[in-house]
Fold this sequence. Notes:
The protein has helices at residues 33-42, 55-67, 87-99, 121-138, 150-160, 176-184, 201-209, 239-250, 254-269, and strands spanning 17-22, 45-50, 71-75, 104-113, 142-147, 167-169, 188-191, 215-217. The chain is an alpha/beta fold. It has one domain (17-269): TIM Barrel. The chain has an eight-stranded parallel β-sheet with strand order 1-2-3-4-5-6-7-8. α6 (176-184) links the parallel β6 (167-169) and β7. α4 runs parallel beside α5 (150-160) and α8 (239-250) packs across α9 (254-269). The longest helix has 18 residues, at 121-138. The model is unreliable at 1-6 (pLDDT under 50).
Amino acid sequence: xxxxxxxxxxxxxxxxxxDTHCHLDMKTYSDDLEAVLDRAVEHxxxxxxxxxxxxxxxxxxxxxxxxxxxxxATVGVHPHDVDEAGPDTYTALAELVDxxxxxxxxxxxxxxxxxxxxxxxxxxxxxxxxxxxxxRELRLPVVIHDREAHEDTLRIIKASGAAEFGGVMHCFSGxxxxxxxxxxxxxxxxxxxxVTFKNALDLQEVAKAIPIESMLIETDGxxxxxxxxxxxxxxxxxxxxxxxxxxxxxEISLDEVARQTTANATRLFRLxxxxxxxxx
Length: 280
């Protein structure tokens, strides 16, 4: 049984972690963002990707990445928000990318959500396909949201050709069979704090089984805080808990998980070289 963790797990001083998915532009971070980033960097989480979910949040994400060296940004329209998006939205996003190539490392969060279906399913599929095409034009890896839409998500990705520039299945929620289909696309699988939950047996099976070379780790903050922070606001430093839990599942060291997932994130998103001791 994997040992539960009651304080921040410790990385060696020459090892870094990357939180590949956090929503740092949200109001819940507005009063203490610098402290959040300092806490992450102090404990070895030296880079975080802050995610756009619509035009406004994409602009904010880029602004944060411009202000803090430990951040990069993505742009895109989340499936919950596509009913409000139109051609002008995507023109503006493309212009944002072209004007901020040094800060924007991916296109997303985009995809399908049949669980809540805040936007009509057919409209989600249309916008998803269009955004995948735009990401390919922009030569960016894609950050995919897939909730209870596995079959359509894979079908639309395959048809788009967007896998040419890589991508990640963010906040992975499928079983091992679905994970293998994702890996066949050449995509990465990203594990949120849910992997630490006692009842997340399918996700833990995936975390044990897939090649570590195909693995990323994320918070999806402020949501889905891992044990022992469950129920609290999530933040980048908490990827340490998920990484340590995965290390226990795989019976390897935390440093090994951190080293490989950081290399994976750097490769996919073409991140700047991350040096120990870098600040915010």
